[in-house]
Amino acid sequence: MKTMLRHCLLAELLGTAVLMIFGTGAAVVNEQTQTLGHGGIAAAFGLVVLILIQSLGHVSGAHINPAVTLGFWAAGRFPGRRVLPYVAAQVVGAFIGSFLVQLIATPGSALGATLPAHGSAQAFGIELFLSFWLMLVILRVTSSFYEQGLLVGLTISATVALEALVGGPLSGASMNPARSLAPAVLSGQLTAIWVYLAAPCAGVLLAVVTDRLLELKPAPPA
């Protein structure tokens, strides 16, 4: 039975808020205590994504990312009429989560905002590739041929954690416009915000094209 749109939107709003609470919340906790480290923050993002996929995936697909929603639509696997409502729910959820994180943050905290370490051009390239690879993994493991329940969530969350671990020090490893927008606005850290809005969208569209090139086709008769 097809899930009603309001249930899907609630799941996306709640899921994106929880992503912010535990993901960017880990960055804020580490800011104050220095107990998690960069590896701990990357692990927090991976773990919360796994939990959200397993708990909300059957309701809304657990996109929790406007770029992922765009990618599924471009791949022909998501109805166009649901794209804007999904994105709106994700953005609202991100702001709610980021506001709750702000309640525990010290004055002047960046709230886990993503910022370029070595300029906008490098950050754009990194975010483009990270978003491309994440979306390609999602498309491959959620295809009917490969999908295997829990392994889907484990593979996607491992990809998020790996990309956050390696790319985080350079670009913040956002891969998610809503995840970057909310803390940037609330903290006033709007430096190069266009990178974190444009690069993930471009990356997922490139992944859709690549996924089509990778589709297995029957061999022509001899």
Automatic annotation (TrEMBL):
The chain crosses the membrane at residues 36-53, 83-105, 117-138, 150-170, 190-209. Keywords: Membrane, Transmembrane, Transmembrane helix, Transport. Gene3D superfamilies: Glycerol uptake facilitator protein (1.20.1080.10). It is found in: Membrane. Its main location: membrane. It comes from the Bacteria. Pfam families: MIP (PF00230). It is a multi-pass membrane protein. InterPro entries: Aquaporin-like (IPR023271), Aquaporin_transptr (IPR034294), MIP (IPR000425), MIP_CS (IPR022357). Belongs to the MIP/aquaporin (TC 1.A.8) family. This is Aquaporin. It comes from Hymenobacter nitidus.
